[in-house]
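User: I'm writing a short methods note and want a consistent example. For Hemicentin-2, I'll paste the sequence; you return only the structure tokens, no commentary, since I'll be parsing the reply automatically.
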Amino acid sequence: MIEIIMPLALCRFIASAAILGVAVATTARNAPLTQVVAVAGEPVYLPCDVATQDEDDAVLLVLWYREDLGTPIYSVDAREKDFGVAERWSDESVFASRAYFLPERRPAELGVDRVRATDQGIYRCRVDFKQAQTRNSRVNLTVIVPPNKMVITDDKGDTKQAIVGPYVEGDTFTLKCDVSGGRPRPWVKWFRNELETDTPVTTLQGTSVRGVLRVGPLTRADVRATLTCRASNHLRAHPIETTLTLDMNFPPLNVHILGSNQPLSASRRYDLLCQSSGSRPPASITWWKNGHRINNAKETLSTDGNTTTSTVSIQLNKADAGAKLACRASNPQMASVPAMEDDWLLDIQYVPETVVRLGTNLDPSNIREGSDVYFDCIIKAHPYVYKVEWRHNGKTLHHNVGQGIIISNQSLVLQGVGRKTAGNYTCVGFNAEGDGESKAFSLDVLYAPTCRSSQQRVHGVAKQERAHITCHVDANPPEVSFRWTFNNTANSNEVSDTYVSRSGTSSTVTYTPHTEMDYGTLLCWAHNRIGKQRVPCVYHIIAAGRPDQVHNCTVVNASLTSFGVRCSEGFNGGMPQSFLLEVREIVTQEIVANVSSAVPRFTAVGLVPGRTYAAAVLAYNAKGRGDPYPLRASTLRPPEKHHVHDKSLDLPRTAFQMSGAMSAAVGGGGVLMVVLVLFMIAVRQRCAKRKPRSAPPPSQPASPDKLREKDDSESDDRNPDIIPSDTDHNMQMDYYRQQQVSTISPPSSRARGSIAGVRGGLPAYCALRTAPPSESTPPSGIPPPAGFASGSCTLPRNAGTANERCIPMQHLRTLPRAHPHPHPHPHVHAHGHPHPPRDTPL
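Assistant:
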């Protein structure tokens, strides 16, 4: 009986449960349905209301179902725990760890991360309360799956990813954008520079679609245009897209040479520029000259890549005038498009090229002195010359008819050419490029020999002395022959060739005088193929002697410790002479300066300031010394020293008091000094009365030396710092007697010879002289130092006639015969002191 009752009870329970399940299912179907849309890969939140109106009520259990599954997929069990810490469970085959419940939201939500396409469906949320009735709600989850593949192809079927092209102007092309994948089926659109275009769409197999874009004809404005294919299937879904950049090639728009059609200078380096723009890719620029490529060009590109600049360094010459210089620009990617070209006909300017040409009727190897010569200047220049200039040995010639220089246009005429006319002639042409000078034309003027200037004309030779007299001539051609003659008072003789030597245009004769008749004149003639020397070279052979006295000596450039002396030289005695300055102390006669020089110009240094010295200037040669020229010279006095108060001395000092004994000593010393000064003044006045200064003879004129010494004496009297020194007059006379020494002894009889056409009556040959006559009174004052030993006459003279005078050489051609002196007795000095006989210059 029990066994029959148990199955019956179980059947009743199952029937009740089934009835209850049906009732619950019926109630769930009638629950409200909420639509939720999610994009695959994104999180989604499914709502479930768990709120209660009774504060004593609470949620015991939350169950989530998916309608295609009969069992729960997620639960929150708070039957034994507080709802905040309730146990959560998720089906591993559905959401697994991606699901989580958010009870704090209103309404509460079941969150699902990274939603999948398989998650799409209807979900039911069941909430069991402690007191309230169970609540059910439904959610319809729709999952959007974006498209996942896009392929773009061109007309050739080639897949394009970033760049399409390159195309050229006028091209037309089509692009196809195929999109596959996604739920629901996606839409496809083309955008050009972000602007939507009409896009025909066709459906392919499955869920794939195709959008087609037709582009063209293309222009330059289409370069770098962006073409974008975009596909999506929901507003919330992120679209997929591919953007292509349109690439195009363009030929150059222009090409031009910068600064063209300007004249260029020959032999000058230029950097020429050529620019081309509009080519894509950048143009390639080449340079050509008369069809020949120039390879040293360098290219630069602008920052925007649109302009190419080519630089070529080129040096042109005159031969490039009229040549065609071309600059060509081409696109290396468009070989079928001809290159653009800009050309330039070169205008080359150059410095004038000049050539000097001698007249056609003239023989350059036979231009003789006195003939007329003319030149032509042949000029090539661009631009043409604006001035032509002629130069002789580098110096500019000017039109001067008086001097025989005639310049007309590009011709030069030289009238009556001479040896100075010979030399190098050039013509210079001037234009804007500069001045061009021709090669020098050497004009060789032939002339007969002439005597060369600046030769030694007077030779002083002693008896039995061998002399070498050289004759120098100027001649062209220089092949010359010489002839020598000797003239004296008696005859004229040819000089034998054995005594003559020749070297170029010079000839030397060896001559030795033995007697008085061997002194005379040597004449030298030369001749070449042009002719014979018209005027001979004349050389006077005289007896060698000491040089004459210098004259016109002055003191210059005096300073504290130095002064200078300048003199004029006298006759050199027929031999080279030098000069000597001796400076002595006036009282002690001590030499303080001794200066020698080849010319009578001296500077004495190292002297004492404010002192007067005795100076003497004399000339000397190999035969001895000439007469000294005495003079006085003074150095400048130093400036007076003025006391300047030194403030540094204004220091506190101890009081000083003079005692009585000291005052008496100072006063006595002062009185003694006054008496001593008065005594010296009295003695000086007495000495002055006993020795009066002698006056010079009234008939004798004062020489410059006397005037100078007088001035010095007066300056000494006026200068209280200098004590005058009065030297005994007899000492002066003794000094001058010592100077009357002759270097050549005269013959016993009167000489009968003559020189250069001056016939008998001349005493002898005498050196040129500028010294004062022997009758003159020596200068007053301090005599010259005794060391100045020299003679007065250097040539032979007649000892028996003391009144005869020496004749200067410059007067030998014009002086008349000498006459005896009307007073043959010896000269007597004004004070009665006899003087020795002395040769006197004219």
